[in-house]
TrEMBL record:
Residues 11-82 form the DUF4372 domain. Belongs to the transposase 11 family. This is Mobile element protein. The keyword DNA-binding applies. Pfam families: DDE_Tnp_1, DUF4372. The lineage of its organism: Bacteria, Pseudomonadati, Bacteroidota, Bacteroidia, Bacteroidales. GO terms for molecular function: DNA binding; transposase activity. It comes from Mucinivorans hirudinis. Keywords: DNA recombination, DNA-binding, Transposition. Residues 129-348 form the Transposase IS4-like domain.
Length: 412
């Protein structure tokens, strides 16, 4: 069998090529600002970041698996700036003691660094340059470090803990712009007060974010929103803008109304002026939307809310492609650190997908990186050319006519 000339080999493993997307100088500035290496002679902040990224990309289930796997990479650790593989106890201590704020701030530094690259694409049909979607997802924990998941158990049962990741994404760039990690019992609408939105922004959310006072403040600030109206909402109809009778299996806008919602602010009765849109979708479901924007069409209101599904897909990508079923620490700080590094890993793969201009699914890119993490393949070639190809042997390499021809398969 001849030498395989189809592989494009380079002098660095895939993991090092992914790590090269990280701007080291910005990380070092944050380390200096937070003094996160002040009491560490070994296993500095950069080493912790690289170690946990290795665990996230390779989907290790525990700190023990990370330590054991990295022991076999002794010849490749110098590429990553590590002198030797860290011990299990060393990784655990850093997760417990090093403040997760360092990795949180670095995630947002990376987001700002790659914002020009990720913002080139836009959602067709949405005219708002700043279009954000926010929602939350709950992750269960097998400890009660962070409270609020499940019902109160009877007898000697133990209530599981859990955390809630509140996230606002840039819908055009498909990446998180604001993230807050809390106990699962925290109500979703408390997340609204943490947002800093500029005039002209369009935001989209579901029924959980029901805060009439916040709706009024957004209207005063020129921030537009599209949400859902709760079934028990009390409102006053000021004007019926339009009505339409839809036939069976027909979908579209049923009616539009100008409404006032009543709320209290510092014991003072106030009203917020909104637009109500009733819509029937392709499955026959009746959906009631509210918005403070009276310029866009009713169809646009329904389409903007339909785009909200994008954040659900992002949560699905995070949970399916990264190890968020097992946590490397039983401390709140360690759990949050792992969440931030998982978001960093997601951002790096998103950058890789954009740079390679591939139409492959995100999950395919994640699997390729995981399988070839320590291979010396060129990462761009690997993403762009990972196909099943068959090359027939020529001349003397063919078998006799009495037998089927031999096929050489090169699977990349």
């Amino acid at each position: 069998m001849g030498k395989d000339s189809y592989k494009n080999l380079v002098g660095q493993p895939i993991f090092k090529q992914v790590v090269d997307f990280l701007p080291r100088a910005k990380f070092d500035l944050l380390v200096h600002r937070h003094k996160s290496d002040r009491y560490y002679k070994r296993f500095r902040s950069w080493e912790q970041l690289i170690t946990l990224l290795f665990g996230v990309f390779s989907r290790c289930d525990s700190v023990g698996e990370i330590a054991a796997a990295m022991q076999g990479l002794q010849g490749k650790l110098s590429y990553l700036g590590l002198d030797k593989s860290p011990a299990k106890s060393t990784i655990g201590d850093a997760l417990r003691d090093r403040d997760e704020v360092l990795f949180r701030d670095y995630y947002f530094e990376l987001l700002s660094h790659y914002s020009p690259l990720l913002s080139v694409s836009r959602i067709k049909g949405v005219d708002f340059e700043k279009f954000y979607i926010f929602d939350s997802t709950t992750i269960r924990l097998f400890s009660d470090i962070m409270k609020g998941v499940g019902r109160n158990p009877k007898g000697d049962g133990k209530k599981k803990g859990g955390l809630k990741v509140h996230m606002m994404i840039d819908a055009h760039a498909d990446c998180a712009k604001h993230v807050n990690i809390s106990e699962a019992k925290m109500h979703d609408k408390k997340f609204l007060s943490k947002l800093n939105l500029t005039a002209g922004s369009m935001i989209c959310f579901d029924k959980a974010y029901n805060d009439y006072g916040q709706y009024a403040r957004w209207t005063e600030e020129g921030v537009w929103f599209v949400g859902r109206l709760k079934r028990n909402a009390v409102y006053e109809v000021q004007e019926v803008i339009s009505e339409k009778v839809l036939h069976d299996k027909e979908f579209g806008v049923i009616s539009e109304e100008h409404i006032h919602l009543n709320y209290k602010d510092n014991k003072e009765q106030k009203k917020v002026c909104l637009r109500k849109v009733v819509y029937r979708d392709e499955k026959g479901r009746i959906l009631v939307f509210i918005t403070n924007n009276f310029q866009i069409s009713a169809e646009d209101v329904a389409f903007i809310y339909k785009c909200r599904w994008q954040i659900e897909l992002l949560f699905k990508k995070l949970k399916q492609n990264f190890q968020l079923h097992f946590f490397y620490s039983e401390t709140e700080n360690g759990i949050k650190t792992q969440i931030w590094i998982t978001l960093i890993a997601h951002l790096l793969l998103t950058v890789l997908k954009v740079k390679t201009q591939t139409d492959k699914a995100f999950s395919t890119v994640a699997v390729l990186v995981r399988i070839h993490l320590t291979s010396y393949l060129d990462i761009f070639w690997m993403i762009q050319n990972c196909k099943r190809t068959y090359h027939k042997r020529k001349g003397a390499n063919f078998c006799s006519s009495s037998r089927a021809p031999t096929i050489q398969m090169a699977l990349f």
